[in-house]
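User: Can you help me understand a structure? I only have the sequence.
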Amino acid sequence: MLPSICRLAGRPGYVSFKPLLLMMPALLASLAFVTPLLGQEPHQNARTAQAFRVENKPKIDGNLNEAVWAAVIASASGFRQKEPHEAEPSSENTEIKIIYDDESLYFGITCYDSEPDKIRATELRRDNELSSDDSVWIILDTFHDHRNSFLFKTNPLGTKFDAQVTDEGKDLNPQWDEKWEVRARINDLGWTAEIEIPFKTLRVIDKKEQTWGIDFKRVVVRKNEEALWSNYDRDFKFEDVSKAGHLRGLDNIQKGLKLRIKPFVIAGVSSLSREGKSETDNRSEGGLEILKYRITPSLSADFTFNTDFAQTEVDQVVINLTRFPLFFPEKREFFLEGAGIFQFSTEKDRRGVPDFKFFHSRRIGLSPNGEVIPIIGGARVAGKLKGLSLGLLSMQTDDFKDIPGSNFSVLRIKRDIFSRSSIGVMVTNRQSRRKDDFNRVYGLDANLVFLENLRVGSFLAKSQSPEVTEGDWTYGTEANYETDSWLLEGAHIVIRENFNPEIGFVRRKDIDKNFTRIGIKPRPRIEWIRQLILSTRFDYHTDHEGVLQNRTHHFFTLETRFESGDLLRIDNHRTLERLDRRFEIRPGLFIPAGTYRGRDVSLQLDLNSRRKVAGQLGFAQESGFYRGSRISFDVNPRFRLSEQLSFDAGYGFNDVQLPQGDFRANLLNSVINYSLNNRWLASTMIQYNSADKLFNLNFRLNHIFRSSDNVFLVYNESRSRSDVQGRRTDRSILVKVTYSFDF
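Assistant: Let's start by predicting it. Here is the structure, written out as tokens:
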């Protein structure tokens, strides 16, 4: 089952690495030329915090009245605003004390508040963004590589948010849920929090004396104020740990978790009803959710067996009005942990949908129409090794219907260069039991940072499939320069007609894509406006013969950010699209080949999440939509009824009128959340798609009885009706329990 990547040269159809090798001299020459620009030291004037060793650990209860806290001085204070007044002292003082023993790092946080009765604290759900609450953020760069970090947040209710951050926020994974403790209390002076983060939760370097990167952020929601300890420059994000401060004083600490075994058991039943016939299946089983072994303090191996994702959140229902496949993000915890290392240099459009994704883990264990394919097991190795970032993944699926079982393997190696840049290689391989059923992709990429704010990415990749000998490659270059005042972007991406990453994602093939974007971001002296962002963008797509396929001119995008925290966005576009062949936009409704021109205007209003009623409101009107018209309306209000109860009512409407016929579509993606406390969480999702005659109901009750162990009660019901399958109803009810053993 383990990967055969090292033996690929002996496989049929072995690919030549000549194109990749030809790229290397040019790449190395360019790096030598720009070395003076790339070799800058990160944040030379960064602040320093001191951690103090203690013999007796504090009791984690949210009170800072113990002697162990009184005996040490504040390690971090003097926060300065990023918003609304850059570099000015924060309006409310914050003091943070840092202590440690052999096993854990502790933070004693005091958030003074001149109006404690106005402290905002409403959220109890773990890994919620906490955007509606006052909060404190901690970021730890344990390798001190100025790139990768661990992010922790909490609010005055002691709610947890934790995430892995890769390449200064290029990938942020909130599905990383590790063991740490927090308690918080509101008092007459403001609010306090105590946090314990075990060293075995983190990855650290193997040295007796350690220096980490560290920074803190405090949010006071009612003032729409953000204050930071070190990185308060508006040109940078909090996740830009190259601008963080330093944590010193750590000496002779525990080097991390050695072994964790986390099995699971599931008890449940599912039923399928179709045209009066019903089938029932026993869904009870057990397996190994994860076995984690720490090879070195910075490199770990994970193993899984008979993996099941019964507790995973369902995808939102959508209507596809294009001829291209939809992109759905990964939501399964096993694949999300450490996913940042498998990121490849790719360009995304303004909606976050990639043109090309080298590795997309949703291809493993899910069929093209979303059916679950049994996963026999797999292994993953990820971390740092001798200056390299290393990722190796291998998963084996079982036979499913007419889909043969296959091995999916991914190898990623990345080398950090200079202060914030990197170069890397990546290989993916899918191989079924049949020797002539395989797919491989090989790639090189580079991500370079110049003069702090200019990022340049470049990639070259080639796929290999049976009986395909040409047109199976892609390359691209993108550049981005963004500060608090300016925005400049550009990209050139080529995807040939036979490029086929079967463990990846390609939105469309046979394109040469060029785009440019320029914007200004003034802060006018108007009391109720914080910032304006005015930009224009041009996209131009041709095929490999240079024939125009798409042209989009985004005349202007105007985004207004108000001091209240609300946001208003207005877009105006002109489009041209050429269809070489007809496509089916809805069942039985075809758009013929031809050239189509259109114009659309859209508005979007985001209400600050601190409001009792927050959310989004959107409207778009497109004339010339395939020689017809389209009007869409989206309303996504969020009602915060209490600390325990909230309601997200997502509704979308499309009215499409075409020469071939008209249709309307209603979409419902609504969620009711109820949290008894931080450990008992319930959610109900109701989905409806009138165009596809689809109704989904998902109920999930989650009891977090230990820091990383859960009991899930999940009920799913799906009803659909189609001309092919008729009426169909799927139901399942499952109980899943995980329990981990740490050594």
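Now, to help you interpret it: The helical segments are 18-38, 67-70, 333-336. The chain has three helices and 44 strands. Let me know which part you'd like to focus on.
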